[in-house]
Structure formats: C-alpha cells, structure tokens
Amino acid sequence: MFQAIRYRLLFSYLAVLTLILGVFAIAVRITFAYTLREELENRLAVLAESASGELDLEDKGLEVDGEDILLNPNQSVQWFDLEGRLINQLGDDPLTVPFDPDQTLQTQTVPYPVKGITLPVREEERNDELIGYVRVSESLEGIHETLRRLDWRLGGGVVLALILSGLGGIWLTRQAMQPIERSFQRLQQFTADASHELRNPLMAIKSNAAVALKYAEGIRKSDAEKFRAIASATTQMTALTEDLLLLARTDQAPRQKQDNVNLTALLGELVRLYSAQAKIKHIHLKGQILKQMEVSGDAVQLTRLFTNLLSNALRYTPKQGCIEIQTRREGNQILVSVQDTGIGIAPAQLERIFDRFWRADRSRSYGSGFGLGLAIARNIAQNHGGSITVTSQLGAGSCFTVRLPADVDRVSTDITADRHTAFP
C-alpha cells in the first residue's frame, strides 16, 4: 500500500518538475532565438548602411564600387536601380525572392534559408534624391545550427535533471513516508492487540448470557429479553473483532502460507454450502466453474475472500433474484466473477466500496454488516498477487471480479482441461 503511495508521490513530483523545466527550457529557447534574430537584423542594418555608400550616380548611370565591403562567407549584397533591375551583387547565397522595395525585411526558406533587409539609397549631393536600392542578406543556417545545439543541450539538461531529481525523489519520499508507515504499523499493532484482548471478555459475556438463557425459568421474561440482546450484541462484537484481527494480520504478513489450492473444489463447496441459505431467501444460486483450477496461496484466506463476496451478494439480492459464479482464464490468470441481480451500487459510490467501515446505504435493511467484508476480500486478493474489481448498475445488480495468478506448475495441464462444471 505504502509502496504505491510512494510511487504516486514520486511520479507527481516528477510530473510537476517536468512541467517547470519544460516551461523554463521553452522560455530560454524563445528568448535566445529572439536575441539571435535581433543581432542578425542589427548586423544586416549595419551592412546595408555600409553598402549603400558604394552606389553612385554617374554620368553613365549607376555604378557600384564594392571593393571596400567586407562580407562574411554567409552574407550577400545586391544593388538595384529604381526599376528594380539588379545592377551588381556580392556573395554566394543572395536572396532569390523577387525584389520588392516596399518590404524592408524578407525571408526565404527554399532553396536555402536566408533573411534580408532592403534599404533605399539616396544621393546627398542631389538633395537626398532616391537613386536605387541595396538589399543585404545572411544565411540562417548558422542560427538554425545554434538553435539545434541549444535544443539538444536543453533537452539533455532536462533529462539529466529529471534523472537526478528522480533519484533524490526516491530518497525524499522514503524519508517522508517513514513516520507515516511507523504510525500505521503502530495502529495495526494496536488493532491486532485490542482485537485479541477483546476475545476473552466477549467470550465470557457470551457464555454467561448463554447460561442465563439456558435456565430462563429462573429469571423474569423481561430479563430474558435483555440477555438475548446482550448475546446478540456480543456475537456482533465478536465478529467485528475477528474481522479487525484478520485485517491487521493480512496487512502485516501477506501470503505467509504457500499451498496449492484447488480453486474448483473450493468454489464448488461454497456453492453447495450457501445453496440452503439461498433457497430460504428464494434466490437462485448457480455456478459455472472450470475444472482443475489451482492457485498458490492460503486456502483459509481464499475461502474467506469468496465467502465475503457470496455473503454480500446474498445480503443485497432480493427474493426471486439470481447469483451466479463464473470462472474463466486470461493468460496465466484465473478470473472468478460473482454476479448478482441485487440493488446495485451508484457510480459515485464505486470508488469507496472497498473502504473499511463504509456501506453504500446504511438506511437499507439488508443485514447488519460492519463494512469490512469487501475490505478483507481486497486485502486477501492483493496478498495473493491478484486484484478485485466491481461493476454495478442501480437496480440491476453488481459483479465482483477476482483476478488470481494461476499456479505456474499447473498452467500447461489446466489449459487442456478448460471445461465447466455446473453447480445448480
């Protein structure tokens, strides 16, 4: 139980940390990419200002003197006249998109990623007359490669941080759960000790009440009624202490006995045992049970598991109802279903149906249980490496399904003998 809680705490912690680190990494990447692009635009603006001074209007027309321009290997410069005709260019990877003087910034992705800036060129000696345009560009491959390296490093950092945090989280959750586990163990021990110590006084009360009722002629009729009430309350208290003691023992020491249990014989005997009680309530009890089903575990505890399920079904199934036990195999697991046509359970209550001391509707007059039967059944199933689930519909009934691992030494022979035995 605490192992599952530790895992949930650890996974919740890692999920929150992953979200925080993911948001941080995305923010770093967006900020870094924005800075790189801003620096690129600044470089292009400086290069464009420098290149615009190389375009001159002479008597023969526009001339370009680009000898003084220093370009990086991934930069290019293009000069255009007022009609948008290319006059000259420098660099190996210029922009290939159509020239547009109204677009200051231009970006292309094919055949290669490039970003460019277009600026007008004016002649100062002619009162800032517009004489042409200059378009400078720079390849984006460098930025893309830098961002790829950043992505790998951020991703690696996040993964490494999660691994280290996971290792630290394992230690932290173990340390955080230790006081809770010790408190729970002390509570278990107190429950077991108290249940054990209550046995003797309850037995004494029950014995004295039985003696008094055996010789009822010597007491008043009203006193006899009181003794019967005392005997009934003592019986209920004894059943409660036995259930609490069983829960405490199964919590503390799961699966101490490892025997081969013939599940076919166990379920068949339970059907025969409860048939008389079902007939009294006018309920049809039947079973479709596979032959040669064997599991490894404690026969007494498994009997208690299915006894609790059958008792629960009989308690909440009205007259003329039906209870059916069905078995089947799924791989190396044996599934046992106890289905009834009882009052059913509301969907909102299904999550709490296995809680201790909880009953779906205390106002109903279907028996006087303490709400421990299903909790005991789940404990026993889990202690045998299995599980128990429930499906239900109000007014239609419920179906409890127990999954148990089959005895691995008998699986190969059992598969060839999957025939049902019907129990009326």
Provide the spatial order of strands within the biggest beta sheet.
13-14-12-11-9-15
Number of strands: 15
Main sheet record: 6 strands, mixed
Radius of gyration: 41 Å
Q: Give the number of domains.
A: 2
CATH fold-level label of the largest domain: Heat Shock Protein 90
CATH architecture type of the largest domain: 2-Layer Sandwich
Summed over residues and divided by their number, the pLDDT gives a mean of 82
| Protein structure class | alpha+beta
Distance from N terminus to C terminus (CA atoms, Å) equals 39 Å
Task: Provide the succession of SSEs.
Answer: HEEEEEEEHHEHEEHEEHEEHE
Describe this structure in words.
The chain is of the alpha+beta class and 424 residues long. It folds into two domains: 145 residues, Beta-Lactamase, CATH 3.30.450; 165 residues, Heat Shock Protein 90 (2-Layer Sandwich). Helices cover 49% and strands 23% of the residues. The protein has seven helices and 15 strands. The strands form four sheets. It has a six-stranded mixed beta sheet with strand order 13-14-12-11-9-15, covered by helices on one side. Helix 1 runs antiparallel to helix 2 and helix 4 runs parallel beside helix 5. The protein is rod-shaped, with a radius of gyration of 41 Å. It starts with a helix and ends with a strand.
